[in-house]
């Protein structure tokens, strides 16, 4: 099943929701207007459709293999990655003075979606490199930047994030990898890291590991963790590769999905110590790592959108082709393609509405990221930073949870064929399952939403978002159409449910933390549902406006109105139950004694 | 991860919800009281825990293989099946005069759950044999019964259901397999059947295929389908095996889950025709097949309960062992096992509440089946038959949908380890995905619920169920406890939502079928949620009563009260959104033009 990038929907969101015209007014982004977006997206679509997407099934059937410390990726990956590098795709969002193209995230994020739709396993390698680049840009010394940055931005070398250890997953306080300082200022690393994506592979000549470890004498817990660069091959003064470093891949995992992406166990220091270089200052590693992680969390949210889109396309193609049974309304005399059946339609519309809404949320978030980072006005930066930070757990948590519902529906649309691996629908179902886990589980995102993003400021940002949503409701009502009215009603109910929960979180998180955290994931799901639905409200308004003026693609715009209304009537309505569960269900979550489980 | 059969919870449901004392008053079931249930369940638990469960992971790792028409099952399956047969388990629910034990479904269903928890792939072989037995009992001639019945009931031979063809899945009107009548009264079959579970294997000496096919000159569509027995080996007059019949397994599928269970493509008649024998009368095949299918649908619902139970046990074990992070309430000074964290608890309680509620619904349904079939009073039979038929789509549809949510949560509880196949949680996630598809997809169950079970009688049975639920609400309120009151409130809201939808279905299914069928699956989910929740209400009342009288296991009974309350506060609350979606969302399901997908 081939992949066709949804360039039209992406450009609609970039133009009307992310407002690329405003992004292009920010110094540094002057050339990044709608025309640039269109040109980049079209070229990106071509590359991913033709080069990367065809490797998705082969990657699942013939995963990366490990032998004697060497990892061989699926046939074709190395060549595709070479083309990715040659096309300059790795540097898309990175600074021009590091060899990148300096495009805004508003454009880059759409490219991330395409790459992940085409092939999530493949896309993970560049995604991790992006994280390493972010960390070096933020906290790396000039010396480190000089050695590593350009090669990472070009894609000549790739990067990894080394956080997890067997005893330290969500809880990084338990990290035990040790870093011993050497006379020359470098360190020697000793320890075991697990779940290291692309920790070893054959697609690049060097791999730059960003590693959390404890320097000698560091305090216990998260305050004693430092961040180190530890390359696979040491780098000589002239930039050429030197000796093999003492970090080795001792095995790769046998996984449910994303099988082509090697998930490595890395052993540091079994032969005298792996040479590592401190990034920034000692004991500030977690802070730097969060920078990488926030970028990665956003990207994982995009992976959710991406795999949902691919599953949707797959299901639509099957539903338009498979003939089975007569329509219940008698609209076709004999057997019809199954897309005529209401429940198939409900499933496809659900998949479509979730995907479009989460894409809209993510691209809107990308624009706020761009403003937060590069806008000349400090107040604008601040407002956008707060909004973006509020969105990150929603983009990560909600978009990935929804992707599992969507890929499950995708299998279901295929009926018995969906269960047969050759059909391809099952791969999305398997691949998507990692998304609610890595880069912080949904519960970790929800803790972030409850603690840092809601309780800490007394719900101020959350209520600000609600006010903006209320304005959209009013605009919908004022627009006068039946679809807009329906969506406004459902948005209003959802917003009120959200405000009830925000008050509850703010009032209760100190006095009854168990009650609040028992509802943290439902709160995340409510907030994500609402904010994504709000973007559908904005999309509906924009589409109606264009229809009125007669500009744009009529069928596309009418479909947007219909899809937005569907989102309200079938997805936003879930929020009331989440509110009830959060406000009234806390006690029963924790009531069962441990021995009774 | 070992499996421990939840005998205590099963016996609680059998005693207090299914009311085995009443079942044991039905002629033929006099010996099938609580003591018998307990003895059978304990022996069944031992067998499944020790013999069948240890083969679950090996079956996933080393699925059945096909070579030159022969299927070899996973090492150990053949021996375990021999023990299954020797233990008399195949005949548990079948008539004594066919060599069975004649136990009620109220007991047999619990045994079906255990077998499926232990090993769903293994359990499918006996499940299909049960279907073949049912069909022969219902419609087979004495001659056919004499030849096949005892050998199927003993488990010496196994059975299959042959419905699906490449072009005929949910839509059996499209069946093309041909049956040519021979001079001796037998038929010769020609055609291709796909998705035939255990269509070929090495665990029994003969395989008895029940096959849908068209006799020459039969009408088109479903009214021209007949049912045939077609054995792998023809049977001589003395019961010994004769010539190999012309039905051959030409391949098996590569599937997402239940990998040990061979899913066969069977080719009939490539060498002159497969000898088949008509079951009952020509052109009544679909009617007979529905008998098998209704039994099978119930059993698939039980598979949902079974795999949810196994996933729950797996997740609890991990949550009690894995140490990570400090509890948010400060109840433990350092890092704690993750079962201390509210979101892990929420997930485990969700898994538990779904599983117990669906088990209770299924066992209650089993008791009504027993009364419907064997009660001496015709009126009692009729009432129970109607109730049972209303329940079947809920047991099949709701329990399997919930099992996918539960197994997904099971992976999530394990965090990153859940994605690693060796952990075992992913297998349940993969295995469960077939349950909403085979024996009729959830949409097919929902069509049945809307059409035959609700609209046809003007909602009479549905409203009768609602009245019974209302009585339970009153009893809960009257009991005076806080937990009971909370559950009563949530039951009432859910019941009212259900009644709104029943009225809508009855009023609208003729005039606007698309609107009703657009909400058919949400209606099924609403009804299943409510009826399962109702059983939790009955369970809560029984548990409270026992706690008051001081009899029974206090910790178990208190856990039941807590779990029931949780079900109300976290699961029943979903019903309002389903109602809103059904009543107000029909139009947007079908509004998008086909070209816009």
TrEMBL record, chains A, B:
Gene3D superfamilies: Acyl-CoA dehydrogenase/oxidase, N-terminal domain (1.10.540.10), Butyryl-CoA Dehydrogenase, subunit A, domain 2 (2.40.110.10), Butyryl-CoA Dehydrogenase, subunit A, domain 3 (1.20.140.10). SUPFAM superfamilies: Acyl-CoA dehydrogenase C-terminal domain-like (SSF47203), Acyl-CoA dehydrogenase NM domain-like (SSF56645). Residues 283-449 form the Acyl-CoA dehydrogenase/oxidase C-terminal domain. Residues 161-268 form the Acyl-CoA oxidase/dehydrogenase middle domain. InterPro entries: Acyl-CoA_dh-like_C_dom (IPR025878), Acyl-CoA_Oxase/DH_mid-dom (IPR006091), Acyl-CoA_Oxase/DH_mid-dom_sf (IPR046373), AcylCo_DH-like_C (IPR036250), AcylCo_DH/oxidase_C (IPR009075), AcylCoA_DH/ox_N (IPR013786), AcylCoA_DH/ox_N_sf (IPR037069), AcylCoA_DH/oxidase_NM_dom_sf (IPR009100). Residues 37-156 form the Acyl-CoA dehydrogenase/oxidase N-terminal domain. Its cofactor is FAD. Signal peptide: none annotated. It comes from the Bacteria. Residues 468-593 form the Acetyl-CoA dehydrogenase-like C-terminal domain. Keywords: FAD, Flavoprotein, Oxidoreductase. Belongs to the acyl-CoA dehydrogenase family. This is Alkylation response protein AidB-like acyl-CoA dehydrogenase. The lineage of its organism: Bacteria, Pseudomonadati, Pseudomonadota, Betaproteobacteria, Burkholderiales.
């Amino acid at each position: 099943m081939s992949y066709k990038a949804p360039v039209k929907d992406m450009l609609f969101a970039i133009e009307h929701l992310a407002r690329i015209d405003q992004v292009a007014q920010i110094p540094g982004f002057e050339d990044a207007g709608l025309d640039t977006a269109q040109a980049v997206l079209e070229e990106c679509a071509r590359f991913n459709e033709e080069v990367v997407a065809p490797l998705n099934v082969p990657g699942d059937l013939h995963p990366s293999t490990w032998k004697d410390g060497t990892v061989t990726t699926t046939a074709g990956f190395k060549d595709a990655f070479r083309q990715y590098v040659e096309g300059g795709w790795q540097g898309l969002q990175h600074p021009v003075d590091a060899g990148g193209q300096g495009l805004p995230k508003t454009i880059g994020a759409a490219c991330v979606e395409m790459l992940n739709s085409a092939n999530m396993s493949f896309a993970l390698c560049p995604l991790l490199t992006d994280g390493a680049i972010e960390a070096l840009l933020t906290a790396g010394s000039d010396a480190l930047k000089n050695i590593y940055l350009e090669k990472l931005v070009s894609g000549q070398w790739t990067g990894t994030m080394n956080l997890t250890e067997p005893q330290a997953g969500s809880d990084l306080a338990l990290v035990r990898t040790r870093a011993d300082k050497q006379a020359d200022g470098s360190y020697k690393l000793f320890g075991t890291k697990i779940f290291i994506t692309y920790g070893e592979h054959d697609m690049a000549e060097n791999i730059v590991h960003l590693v959390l470890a404890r320097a000698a004498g560091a305090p216990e817990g998260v305050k004693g963790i430092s961040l180190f660069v530890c390359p696979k091959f040491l780098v000589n003064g002239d930039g050429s590769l030197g000796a093999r470093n003492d970090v080795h891949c001792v095995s790769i995992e046998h996984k449910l999905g994303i099988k082509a992406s090697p998930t490595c166990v890395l052993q540091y220091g079994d032969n005298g110590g792996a040479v590592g270089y401190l990034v920034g200052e000692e004991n500030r590693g977690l802070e730097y790592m969060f920078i990488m992680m926030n970028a990665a969390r956003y990207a994982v949210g995009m992976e959710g959108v991406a795999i949902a889109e691919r599953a949707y396309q797959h299901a639509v193609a099957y539903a338009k082709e498979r003939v089975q049974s007569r329509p219940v309304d008698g609209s076709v005399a004999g057997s019809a393609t199954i897309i005529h059946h209401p429940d198939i339609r409900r499933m496809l519309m659900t998949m479509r509405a979730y995907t479009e809404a989460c894409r809209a949320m993510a691209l809107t978030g990308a624009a706020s990221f761009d403003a937060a980072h590069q806008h000349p006005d400090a107040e604008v930066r601040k407002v956008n930073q707060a909004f973006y930070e509020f969105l990150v757990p929603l983009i990560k948590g909600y978009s990935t949870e929804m992707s599992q519902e969507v890929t499950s529906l995708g299998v279901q649309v295929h009926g018995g064929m969906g269960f047969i691996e050759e059909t391809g629908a099952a791969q999305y179902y398997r691949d998507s399952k990692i998304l609610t886990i890595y880069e912080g589980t949904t519960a970790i995102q929800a803790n972030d939403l409850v603690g840092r993003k809601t309780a800490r400021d007394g719900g101020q940002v959350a209520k600000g978002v609600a006010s903006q949503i209320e304005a959209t409701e009013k605009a919908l009502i004022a627009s006068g159409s039946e679809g807009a009215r329906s969506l406004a009603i459902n948005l209003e109910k959802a917003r009120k449910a959200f405000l009830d929960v925000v008050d509850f979180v703010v009032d209760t998180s100190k006095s009854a933390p168990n009650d609040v955290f028992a509802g943290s994931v439902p709160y995340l799901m409510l907030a994500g549902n609402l904010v994504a639905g709000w973007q559908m409200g904005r999309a509906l308004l924009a589409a109606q406006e264009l229809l009125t003026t007669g500009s744009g693609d009529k069928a596309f715009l009418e479909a947007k109105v219909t899809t937005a209304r569907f989102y309200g009537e079938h997805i936003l309505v879930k929020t009331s139950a989440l509110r009830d569960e959060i406000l009234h269900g806390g006690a029963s979550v924790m009531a069962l004694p441990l021995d009774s489980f």
